[in-house]
Write the structure tokens for this entry.
Amino acid sequence: MATMPANSPHLRLSDSGKLVERHWNELAAKRRSYTLLSVAILLVATFGSLWFANETNAGKFFDRLPYFFDFLGDMAPRDAMEPVRALFDLPSPYDDGSFKYNYPEGRLYLTQSIYIPEYFHKMLETINIAILSTLFGFALGFPLCFLAARNLTRNSWIRVPVRRVMEVLRAFPEVVIAGFFLAVLSIGAIPAIIAVSIHTVGALGKLFFEVVENADMKPDEGLTAVGGNWIERVWFGTVPQVMPNFLSYALLRLEINVRASTIIGAVGGGGIGELLRLSIGQNHPAKTIAIVFLLLLTIIAVDQFSAWLRRRLVGDRAFELTA
Amino acid sequence: MPTTMPTPLPTLAPARPMMNAAERDAVALRHAVLLEHASQRSWRPLIIAVTVVAYCIFSWWMFNVGDTLRRANWGIAGTYLADWVSYEVRPEFDIARDGAMTLTYPRFSPLGDNPDPDWLTVEKRTMTRTIGAEPTAGNAASTATKPSIGFMGAGALMGDKAAAPQAAPQTVTKEVLSRAEVRYNGSTRIEVTPDVVIAEHGGETLTMRLDHQTGTVEAEGALPEWATQKRPGEKITLAFGATGWAEVAGNDVSIRNRFFGWANFLFDTQSPFFDKSAAEVFALITSAPRIDPAQSNLSLAWSNILYNSEWQHLDVWTKLLQTIVMAFIGTLFASLIAFPLCFVAARNITGSRVANQLTKRFFDFLRSVDMLIWALFFTRAFGPGPLAGMSAIFFTDTGTLGKLYSEALENIDDKQREGVKSVGAPEITVKRFGILPQVLPVFASQALYFWESNTRSATIIGAVGAGGIGLKLWEAMRTNSDWENVAYMVLLILGVVFLFDTVSNALRSRLIGSRGH
């Protein structure tokens, strides 16, 4: 013990040593109490939230839980081929003239004999909504982002309003935009396109200007030195370096927009979402399974395609955190 | 060509090799493929642009955009937008065949049960009317303009006729309106008398003569730009822009006076505090005798605000809280479940490839089955309400967060693990001190990001029945008459999203520095 005083816990501390120790203890206690406080707040918030959610729900969690799997049982189709028939609009042997099994009626005939099954047609519509709104969002977010970037727009009287506008566009509930244009334009895909586009402008604009702010300013300086105006500086100095990232973000947005346009479809914007809501509401297992299957396949396909294209554009960088 | 071969430059030449235009052409001729590539590249934007334009034209045709836009009701769009921030008061003047003019307000008028606005002045006179001589003079005037064809309408008419012969012609003396004046604003006013309606707007005056017998209306002189009449004799619509409009027909004059603001935001028309100034309400609350003996005036006022029948504050706040709770619990549970699973999914932590792949595919499945599908399923299972919404967010985000977390784990620095391992620490300690300190801030930051982003998603999935303010928004929009309530809820949502955005950004930049977006 005496030979190794430096390691002994019983070593008498000098005054300054004691002070350090006291401060250390105080800091540790403070930290502990903060941690405890955070955990306590989190726990209270969690249980309070759970209680509140359960209280205001139509069915209570523990009352409904036993029936949860009954509901899954309800989702069993009459036979294994039934979802396939629903998916490809083939005639069903259960057809009794009611609308429940009238799969062939949804066919969209291209020629006398070639037709697109209803769900494929609607799925294409949903994808088209997503592509179009991504295009519009890109087309509008692209010019806006340069005005919102600190390094290209020094004037805060332009920059700050542009940013605020993009924030509002991003946060504005899509349901409301869709609902408003549904009231004006009547049912159809256009309200969904407008709603998703408006949100996309804000979302892409934000991501874009962050990319622009991280861009290398040397080309810009060079162009300034030779007397380029603002548009020339942006177009030849910044755009070439940010374009791959822009496209990558736009593709990522496309993935998100496929999902968003499905959801908007479910609240009246046309496309596959509406059919899914209807089939679940009508408790029709075969149709539901067909649509969910198609939707799952499409989303996976779009995700894979976009991931592949993004990898080609910007290499193996992850841009996932951008919902 | 050999004459222009690059000659070695003197020693002072710059380090960068230079060549003149002729040399460049020479190189181009020898290696044509180099510049071919460039010309291909220069065509690419054009090709992309043409494709995009062609695609847009195709979509224009596919979605029938032109036709939809042409059929759209743009006039109503303006009214709906104006409804966001303003309201209309709608007095109606009915003029019976004998010229008796009466003023009525619709039920649920924003002015309450006994409106007496100062922008509307009336002059009264007494009139001796013969009621019952012809089938109910008062009713006949109103039914004549809209012939009822439905079986209910026909029944009502028959009832009238059956009653009419029994009621002998009766002479009563009643007070009716002789003249009324509606002032919209400084330059716009309408003067209504039983026979003549005079409208003034923007310095122009329009005089309209009403014929009660035929129910027609005729303008004197040419119609100004703000007045429209589809056919001679039919009603004349007067559009005064933002301040309102009016319709003048032979037997009735409808006034639509628009006011800026939200009507009766605190107290509805049934409340005892209705139409009182802030000082009066304050005085009532602090020092007046109890209006309702069962409770103090303060609690009465508070409950009147909460249960305001037009704005439904309590319900809106509850639904908003549901949305917040859905996002909070959904994200919290998702990150709690994704946390242990991501260790199984990460290649560099769990050796078994089967376990990695299974977990990753499980995450992909949860993510790819859209939040909408989960929401619809859980709405069926739990009934409409926040439980469905939070479960949907929980399922989707377990997949998303699991994927992100496992990717973060696969990118960690192995040196810290090796360091902890090298002093002989058990496996669990290696994870605790070698891995967690590296990834925990990233995990928390991503969870916070999704918390904020899910607050927005929760609004949308609410509209399909998964609880929260989404459904309430959707219902308010469906009636097309409650756009001010929509505006109110949108403002609340925007406020909450901005608040959470700020909180989440602040917390995240504390966790991982300012680099995290």
Q: What stands out?
A: The beta strands of chain A are 108-109, 115-116. Chain A is about 75% helix and 0% strand.
